[in-house]
């Protein structure tokens, strides 16, 4: 029987709660997962995302890097098994610049 490989990303939500997101079952699949795919998985799991907010309002931070381009693969940012990613939501308001 082959080794079971499961990539799990721990995401800290708006209320500080940590949610585990299962991304894939093997290293090969992990090499293909994009920032957008992670955001789509988060939306279904994180409670408390304000009404009317979209995936484009979601900002993900890994280490000292913001995961900006939705089409960038997570592995390009160095995301690995049990990585901890923080999420923030852009909200309306604040001063105009």
Automatic annotation (TrEMBL):
Pfam families reported for this sequence: ubiquitin
Coiled coil stretches, renumbered: none
Location of the Ubiquitin-like domain: 34-94
InterPro entries: Ubiquitin-like_dom, Ubiquitin-like_domsf
Name of the molecule in the record: Ubiquitin-like domain-containing protein
